[in-house]
Amino acid sequence: MESRVDKPSHLSVILDLSPTQWYLSAKTTNPYPLSIGSFLSQLLAFLNAHIATKNENTLAVFGALPGKSVMFYTSTEALVDEPLPLDANSYLPFKMLDTTVTQWIFRELDAIEPGDEPPCALVGALTKALCYINRITLPSTSSTNVAEGSTHLPDPRILILSVSPDLSSSYIPIMNAIFSAQKLKVTIDVCKIYGPDTIFLQQAAHLTNGSYIYLERRDALLQYLIMSFLPPPLVRKVLAVPRQDKIDFRAACFCHKNIVDVGFVCSVCLSIFCQPVPVCSTCR
C-alpha cells in the first residue's frame, strides 16, 4: 500500500493577471522589476517541475482577469484548439502545458478592451479551483471498495500568485471560499509578487495551514516557487518552509465593505459593522 508521502498531488494555480498591476511591476524604477514575460517563463518551469515530480500528479491553471475568471489548463482535459505537432526534441506534456497556458493568457489579455479596468475576479477563480478539486477528489461511485480507491486520490492544494491589492467588497466571498477549502482539506498557498500585503490572502493561507510569502526579490521568483511551493503539504512537515511571522486578522464591515480595526459584531449572525446599529441588517 502506498505511503501517504507517496500519494499523488494535485496543484491548482491561480494567476492574478491585472494588466495595470503587471505594468507597474515591470517599471524599471522598481528595485527588482518583473515583466509578465519573465514571470511566465519562470512559472512554466515551476509547473513543469510539478508534473515531472510524479507521473500521477495533476495540474490545473486558472486566470483571474478583470471582471472574469478562466480555466487555462487542466491535465485531465485537452483545452487546445488543435493537436500539437510532434517534436522529437521536446517532451509532449511539457510542450502541451507551455503552449496551452501561453496561448490562453495572451488571447485573454489581447481581448481586454481599453478603458476603466474592473477588479480581477480572484474570488471567481478561487471558487472554480475549489469546484474542480471537489470533482476530481471525490471517490468514484462505481468503485465497490471506496476505502481502497481513496488511497489513490490526489492531495489537493491551491497556489495563488497575486499582484493586486485587497478588494474590501470581496471579504465575505473569500471567507466563504476559505471555509470551503477547510472542509475539503485543501491547502491554500499565496505568493505575493507585487504590491502591498493582502490581508485576506494572509488569512486564507493561515486558516488552511498554507504558506504566505511576500517576494522581496522578484528576480528570484523561480527559486521561491521551487523551494517553498513545489513540495506537497505532507513533505513540508520535514522541511523548513518559510511562513509569515505576523498575520493581519482585520475584517471588512458588512455595511460599507471597509477594513476596520474595531468593529461591532451581531450576537446572532456574527455580522461585523463599523458603527453601532439598532437592528442587524443581515439577520433581522
Write the SSE topology.
Layout lengths: L8 E8 L2 H7 L10 H18 L4 E8 L2 E7 L17 H19 L11 H16 L8 H4 L5 E8 L8 H14 L2 E6 L6 H9 L4 E3 L6 H9 L3 H4 L14 E2 L6 E2 L3 E2 L6 E2 L11
Parallel strand pairs: 1-2, 1-4, 4-5, 5-6
Antiparallel strand pairs: 2-3, 7-8, 9-10
Helix pairs in contact: 2-3, 2-8, 4-6, 6-7
**Alpha-beta classification:** alpha/beta
- Beta content comes to 15-25%
**Rg result:** 20 Å
What spatial order of strands do you see in the largest sheet? 3-2-1-4-5-6
What is the β-strand count?
Answer: 10
* Share in helix: 25-40%
N to C succession of SSEs: EHHEEHHHEHEHEHHEEEE
Main beta sheet, described?
A: 6 strands, mixed
**Overall 3D geometry?**
globular
The total count of helices amounts to 9
Mean pLDDT: 84
Low-confidence stretches: 141-151
Distance between the termini: 54 Å
Protein described:
This protein has helices spanning 19-25, 36-53, 92-110, 122-137, 146-149, 171-184, 199-207, 221-229, 233-236, and strands spanning 9-16, 58-65, 68-74, 155-162, 187-192, 212-214, 251-252, 259-260, 264-265, 272-273. It is an alpha/beta fold. Strands 3-2-1-4-5-6 form a six-stranded mixed beta sheet, with helices on both faces. Helix 6 packs parallel to helix 7. The longest helix is centred in the middle third of the chain and has 19 residues, at 92-110. The termini are far apart. 33% of the residues are buried.
Question: What's the gist of this structure?
Answer:
The protein is α/β, with parallel strands linked by helices. The protein has nine helices and ten strands.
